Amino acid sequence: MNTLRTPAATVISVVIPTLDSAMSVGAAIRSAPPGAEVVVVDGGSRDRTAAEAARAGARVETAPRGRAVQLNAGARAARGDILVFLHADCRLPRAAAGHVTNILARPGVVGGWFPQRIEGGGALLRFGARGANRRARWLDLPYGDQAIFTTRSTFGEVGGFPEEPIFEDAGLARRLRRLGRLEPAGAAVTTGTEHWQRLGPIPTAVLDYLTLGAWLAGAPPKWIARLYFPLQRGSRGRRPG
Length: 241
Description:
The longest helix is centred in the middle third of the chain and has 17 residues, at 123-139. Helix 9 packs antiparallel against helix 10 (221-231). This protein has 10 helices and 10 strands. By secondary structure, it is α/β, with parallel strands linked by helices. It starts with 11 loop residues before the first strand and ends in a 10-residue tail after the last helix. It has one domain (12-194): Spore Coat Polysaccharide Biosynthesis Protein SpsA, Chain A (Alpha-Beta Complex), CATH 3.90.550.
């Protein structure tokens, strides 16, 4: 029997940035814990993203395009004590609320993340997910598709996401680590294969780690973004951020 529980007084807000995400946003919203507030922040979609999000039960806000800008706008609009940042092509696991609240209740912990599972992937994609999870553990740098979470007060204290065109997620993790520890949840978030399909699993992994190395070495995110997104052949060309 699952013993994870969410305290009745705790309100969780799930913040989802979107851009042309009509095909996936409904599933992301429906994966939110029961009773959670879901705030979708759209950056100018040209499809039915906003309509699909509203139909799935989310509150839809708008913000200038840019994943970090949208996430920060969603955090301001959210009412919850806990903020969970979820990409539109990801789905939270069952009992996510219990995992989140239990982790945040631990002494010295200021935030956390979910290990990643790539839906419908073969051996190469399973290897890619394992690599992403090891990177998050070893470097203490989870990415946005691992559903980073923290409390509203801590998020405000660190100044939210750095409003950069890339690595805004790792930037938030770095800010949070100045205050305490980040810990992984005991269940995985499920993500789609789009990120890996356009370029292929191996070239995508190589590109991701090269750009991470450049970021860790202090290269400006704007410079990295100018190289990364064209090389990704448009797989994130319309990404919110």
